[in-house]
Each structure stands twice: as C-alpha cells, then as structure tokens.
Amino acid sequence: MLEIGSGLGNLLNSVKPNYGLGIEVNPHTIDVARQKFPDLKFLVEDAEFYQGDRTFDYVILANTISYFENIQKALLNVRSACTPSTRVILTFHNPAWEPILKLATSLGQRMPVHHLNWLSYQDINNLLDLEGFEVIFHGKRLLLPKRIPIISWLCNKFLAPLPVFNNLCLSEYVVARMKPSHAQVKQNLKNLSCSVIIPARNEAGNIESCVTRLPKLGKHTEIIFIEGHSSDNTWEEIQRVQAKYGQQYDIKICQQTGKGKGDAVRQGFAIATGDVFIILDSDLTVKPEDLVYFFDAIASGNCEFANGCRLIYPVSPKAMPWLNRMANRFFAWLLSYLLNNKIKDSLCGTKAISRENYGRLAANRSYFGEFDPFGDFDLLFGAAKLGLQMKDIPVRYVPRTYGSSNIAHFKEGLVLLKMCLYAAKKIKFL
C-alpha cells in the first residue's frame, strides 16, 4: 500500500499493510513517522515528482489532492505505481463546506490552512479521466465533524448514510482504477478462456439447448452442469448430452452436494478452470447467445463484475409478471443505495467475473459469511466490498419453454429483504 501525503503515518499503520510506503514532503514529519512505525517505510518525496520502482494494490490520497499545485502531474505519477487491479482511494472536502470551515478557522475551532483546491466530485472525476482513471465508487461521510459525545456518533453512524443527509456530509471519497488500454483489451479477448456454470434442477427439457445454443467464448469454452436434486430426469439428460456432444464441447458434470442455487454456483466455480466465469440459468429465460457480451465485458477489462439486466429490452408479462417487475425494481433501488453503485436489475441470475477476482471474493467471504442461498447477493456484496467495477449487461429475457419456476416468490422475497438489511449493517452503516 502506498500513501501519498502520509503525514505521521497513523492512517497507513491503521490499515496494517503487508508492505506500506508513505511519502511526505516534510522531512521532520517523516523522521517522526519512522520512529513511530519502524515496520513501515517512509520517504521524503513530492507527489508531483515521485517516480517509484514498484506497484501497489492500493494508493491512498487522504485529502492530499487539495494541496497539489499540479494535480494532473501528480495523478500521472500515480499511474506508475498502479496495475490494472490497483485501487486509488481519494478523499476530499465537500466544497459546500468551504464557508463553514473558513468560519471555524476564524473562530479558532480549526487549524488555519491556506491555498486549498476546493474541488467538486465533477472536478475530481474529470481530472481522473484525463489521466486515464475511471471512478468505481463515490460516496460521502462525516455529517458532524465537531466531537460531541453521543450526538456526533449518532449523526455520523446513522444519519450520514441516509439520503438527503448524505449530501450534507463534509468528507467525500472516490475509489478509482486505471482504464484498460486498447492493446490489453485486444490481447485478452484473444487469449482468455471461459467457464460457463449451469445450475440445473428439474430442467431436463432445456439441457441439450444449453449446449447447442452456447456461442464460442474466448480461446476455449468449458461447460459445467451442476445438477441439484431434481425430481425429473435432469441428471440422466445431462449424462446423455455429455456423451452425445463430448467430442465437440468440453463438458463437465456434477451432482450438487448441498442445497440452493448459491451452493450449486460455488460448487461449479470450485471446479472451473477458465479465466472468466459466467453463470447461465438452465431455464434459458436468458438467451445463451447473449453470453458473448458478458465474456467480452470481463475479458476486455472494461468491467470486473458483469450483472445481467433484463429491463432494457421489452419483457413479456408471461416471463416477468408486473408484481415481480415491481419487486425487482425495489430491490435494485435498495441495492444501488447500499452498494453506492447503480444496478438496474438485482435479481437476474446471469453474472460474470474473472477467475482472479472470484478467488479474491471467495477469500473475503468470511466478512459476510454463507448467508445467501441464491448466490446473487453473495457475488454482488462481495464485488462491492472488493471495489470491483460493476456494469449492467443487457439481456433478452423470454418465457421459459419447459418446466416451471423453482422460485417461491413471497417467501424468497422476505429472505432477500433480510439479506439487504444484513448488508446495510455490514456495508452502509458501519
């Protein structure tokens, strides 16, 4: 981890990095930081002239951007410390607070600070874009900066995250990443492979079409069926299809050991060998032909978590009744608020993520726990926690032609609401 403008090193130390480097222009401050935190490394450097010899997982600029004389030059130098997976975290003051902070300074309630850059989020976004970065998250915190026992805690923990109140907060933050280069995009689309995980329960009539309608994805496409305790002949049909098409397609089959779609997806991911993982529901209400857009989105690096969206193209009431559509919109709004990321369709089963990022997500799963029987929220929450770039991928949603839905809408709606409340505690109201 690299912190630019590390001061006395307190913030860098608090996140406990495996390797931490802090740079600061003040030599005396660096001397104090080295004495306080001998396990960390500190250098006397100006961010506008810094040229490091290594890259980092995270780069932190905590209010530092407000002091730069040449912001674009500093951000250009930050690029040398980044890889495609590096997250750049910037904090800055809400410019609406400028007169309030100046008043606090004149009243002796705040240390005098001169010549600050009072930047709006639009300014920050534009500057990052100019230097080859894109914003993943933007949020605000700290409604009451003055320490008042109990009142400050209540305001900052419970009121600050709420709509309207959040717009009044003092501190803003941005999480950004480098945009993928055209050369990198071209190379990845050509060289990466794909695993398509297909959970299947009581879908015998759809199994063969899952294979024959699937487009070629990347340099190699692996198909993984996970059969989930069906009452029809789904497992026998999967075996038949593997035998029939095994020479043309790389097909792996497995019977589920646990319960629920989420467990089936995780079991499929555990045996997948591709560079890109995609989930395809075996009811074929999402057309297999559309998976090419999910692969391209992830393989190109243009996004890191691809979320299927059924609400772009017209949807038949038979495929998604009015009540289901309203419930979907409600959960999409709620999740967008909780995750600080606009999601139009939260309940589409088709999703994609790279093998590398799924490994990171799975390793970090203990933060939320095994709370999601569906698998959708587990992936959404995990991706948000890692700061992955999420994008909606439009799909064409059609009525099923075989069998009936395995979803108990009212009962599972209550489970979804419970999971959202759990996520609010773990993500929004920390």
Overview of the structural elements:
The protein is an alpha/beta fold. The protein folds into two domains: 46-179, 3-Layer(aba) Sandwich (Rossmann fold), CATH 3.40.50; 184-428, Spore Coat Polysaccharide Biosynthesis Protein SpsA, Chain A. Helices cover 37% and strands 18% of the residues. It has 15 helices and 14 strands. It has helices at 10-14, 27-36, 71-79, 98-106, 121-130, 151-159, 182-191, 207-212, 234-245, 261-271, 291-300, 322-339, 355-363, 376-386, 409-428, and strands at residues 2-4, 21-24, 41-44, 58-62, 87-93, 133-141, 171-178, 194-200, 221-227, 250-255, 276-279, 305-309, 351-354, 390-394. The strands form two sheets. Strands 3-2-1-4-5-7-6 form a seven-stranded mixed sheet, with helices on both faces. Strands 10-9-8-11-13-12-14 form a seven-stranded mixed sheet, sandwiched between helices. Helix 1 (10-14) links the parallel strand 1 and strand 2 (21-24). Helix 12 packs parallel to helix 15 (409-428) and helix 13 (355-363) packs across helix 14 (376-386). The chain starts with a strand and ends with a helix.
